[in-house]
Amino acid sequence: MKKRLGDYVLAFLIILILNFILPRLMPGDPITAIYGDALVEMSPELEAHLLERYGLERSLPEQFYLYLLHFFQGDLGYSFYFHAPVSHVLAGALPWTLLLAGVALACSALLGIVWGAEAGSRRGSLFDRASLITALFLNGIPGFLVGILLLLFLGFYAGWFPLSGAASVHLDYTGWAWVQDILSHLFLPALTLTLVQLPRNFLLMRSSLLGVMEKPYVTTARCKGIKERLVRYRHALKGALPPVVTRLGMSVGLLFTGVLFVEVVFAYPGMGHLFFLALQYHDYPVVHGCLLVITVCVLMFNLLADLISIKLDPRLKEDAR
Amino acid sequence: MLCKRALFLAFSVLSFFVIVACAPDNPERASSPDGGGNDAVNTYIIGDEQGDWGYPSPFTAYPRGPGYIRMSYLFDNLVWKDADGFVGALAEEWEFDKEELSYTFTLREGVKWHDGTSFSADDVVFTYRYLQEQPFPWQDLDMIDQVEKLDSHRVKIYLEEPYAPFLNNLAGVVPILPEHIWEEVNNPDEFNEPEAVIGTGPFILEEYRRDQGSYRYQANQDYYLGEPKVERLMMVKVSDPQMALQQGEVNYVRVAPEATSALEEEGFQVLEGRHDWCLKLMTNHREAPFDEQDFRQALAYALDLDELVERALRGHGLPGSPGLISPDSRWHCDELPDYSYDPGRAQEKLKELGYTLEDGTVRDQHGEVLSLEVLVRADYAREGEIVGEQLQQLGLEVNVRSAESSVVDQRVREWDFDLVVSGHGGVGGDPDGTRRFMTGEASPHNNARLDHQELREEFTRQTRALDQEEREEAVCRIQHIHAEELPAYPLHHPTWYYGHDGEVDWFFTRDGLGSGIPMPLNYLAFIE
Amino acid sequence: MHVNYWDEIKKDNLGRTGLLLITVLAVVALGAPLLAPYNPWEYVAPSLSPPSWGHPLGTNDVGQDIFSELLYGTRTTLLVSVTAAFFSTLISLVLGVVAGLRRGLPERLVLRLVDVMLVIPVFLVALLVAAYFQPGMTTLIVLFSLLLWPPGTRIIWNRVLSLKHQAHFTAARQFGAGTAYLVGRHLVPELYPLLAVNFIQVVRRAVFMEAGLAFLGVFDPAAKSWGLMLHYAREFIFTDAWQWWLLPPGLAVSLTIIAFALVGYSLEAALDPRMRRQTYADH
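^ Those are the sequences you sent over. The predicted structure of the assembly is below.
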């Protein structure tokens, strides 16, 4: 466990450093990148003012030191593009991503586990073979393609769901209507993300269950005369779950990749969308902030997954991963 | 049973979604009386692909067209414009005194700020003084000598030098700020309080959501020119403009050229915009071989702009005007040199310069193949390729390279390039604004930076020319010089289209909104 | 006991399908200049024309033949992913063997690095780096090789640990065999199946990442890539063009990934008794 924590801290530090170095390797300064096409001429006073405020004229080590200092004070900087503290910008986007990712994770995990268990326990049957093939094929379709197709068919042609955004802004919804509105905007992105994650979870669960089925304690349980159904679900499943949960935790990084694509395709105003926008506009502080927050989320999900799987199988406590 | 329970849970979650999401209550229709719940409000919705253009105070709105527009709905200037020319806003009348170089504005009476306070000359005096002290992103107020309050409703502005576009670029652009709010504010670009958006304009800000990229405005019922036609105005972000318009999610949005025929068939109106944007081929005229005017002209003759418009814009645009100023601007000079596609002429010019054509490749005096690099940003990759192809047909060896925008900007700034394809707006408005694209050191990544004595003199002349005819003459001369020297060769002016449902009668402002924004979103369309 | 994995795959239906698809792709990639009716960089017809006899998939927004673009796109995809997979597998092999053989500090370092990198969201980092350097194929190959080696390394390390205790290995060592010999003759041949699986999985990931980056617009605009086609096609989604411009490259990417997934799965199944614990199913 301690080792895991150490890994997480290290990963975080690496991202921190990477975050800082990369954008600064590019030639050209962000001022030109953002204001370069402005309709109005940038006066020298304004430019000096901006340079000073963003500290771009200081030396690189000085900037890095400032960067670390601010970070540990909770100050993630000021966004060039959004004209607001980065933490505000992130705070606006994070809840949507958590909603989307959380819903998709829960749905795909639940469905995947159930599906995988059913298929795994009926190995070789038509259901199993069909499920396997479906999962393998579905797994190969990239998330952004799924998203675009769903957007086209269910959103545009059928008109059942809105085409973008997280909520209708021009209409004053309160209470139940507001919840409904949010959910209707959430549906397509969440469905896409769930479909993307589902096959992987299915395959995980299935192979884990298959592995467990051969274990001695399962055979023992069978020999003891316990009903097959009970053997499957109570004994085998319990054994099969922990590695799946751990792997689920590990695949959170991939979940966020999926979130990025889905948010871009549906213009869903979460962290992924923000990250992409900030990249385009060279808004370094927001890019840093996004990547840091996403990494923290990934690490925390990992930690959570580890804790859950330890609960499920106390033997893992000492497992040297 | 764990499995059964899990299955049940999963199904209930799914069905919950389905029920909720397919609920009959999905009224995304804009401006319909039954807008979901508690409002029967007349709403107009403007769609925008970016969405967020900053908090709409004069200092925090993003320094681009859409940012200015959102601010202009809240704040009035001294004068404004409609399709034909200047109309009074906060000033009812104005007079210009040639000897004193002063403008006397008679202000409107009985105007109130959104918070109820009365507007007076003090606010105008304060605004102009304040904006000279604080960095104001829209305009440079250096040419103002002083602002004098004559009485409670008359203000006099003295200029240091004659400035012909004063009304267009200053009086018609500078928003008047309420003194009682801004006099305490020392960091206006961090002033995000609700007071920051209190103006005298036709709309009042109700809500701004940065994360959603949305603005909600309420009509100012006491507006002095008349109450706006809509009770509520919204500007929202859309990811697919055409779909949003077709689905009724918005009333107005800028649309892609390919969508226009389908939209018109469905009963929408499509406005064809004036051309304000220009894509041009910038040359490094400080180094050989581009330092020869004849060489630059040869390149121009080698390029088939009609084909470029056909392929890159699918016909939705105009070939570039060699004088840079947009062909449908009222300042466009009609008799400019013609560089219509003429490869023979191009070859001739090259020969005159001493180049030879051997088995299809152009060689210089030393027999070396002439090799050029065309640098482009990823956005202009298509055009770059077409230009490269056409130049290759002339016999030049061309290498088209795409790079990240800041890399391109940097290289242009340092004169480390051969040819660059880049573009900018601002060629359809007041010609004073085109100076920074032709000469001087400002905006280097878009600026041809031509060092030409007569050009500079003509620019100065047109800035100071208070007589319209004299100004037109100077502007024409400027275009001629640019067209002859060709430090940058304008390639095309794309056409922009705006689709809407006909509820509001949009029009194009003369010389562009404010100092030259080419969009039809003039708030006067909502009045009377 | 050496199982003939090749036969195993060919026997399995899924594996066969996968191999067939990969063969088709390879043929298309190699034969693109011959198979494509037009040069995909040339403007051959009016823009956005629907499919016709001359242009089975119509033309894109600048008048290039989409079918030809599709064929040439195969080259980009396969070139980038196969090369990246090769180098990535090589790195995995080297690091895995080093960690397995030299216990102690090198092992700890490598494993720590692997664990750390497994936690980092790889695609986001790739996006960050790629966006700033506006890459072409070479940059992507380097980037992918540097980012995709961790999962395989751990598995190889694990295998090396157990191989070390096998009779032929210890015997050779007793007889004084040098490290190079041990690695070359006793380790690597045993590792081939693992390396093959790793290779396939990395190809799968690389194809996805390349398509994803290009879809987001982070790619050399002059190259012919399926992801890039999707990127441009997406702008015209409100017209009917998506049927012939968006779907084909999307299907192409999907089929490529599926093909490799099928072969990979089938290979893993053949290795099943040995590889029960750690699979690639989670990547």
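Chain C touches chain A through 47 residues (CB under 8 Å). The first helix of chain C runs from residue 5 to 11.

Shout if you want it in another format.
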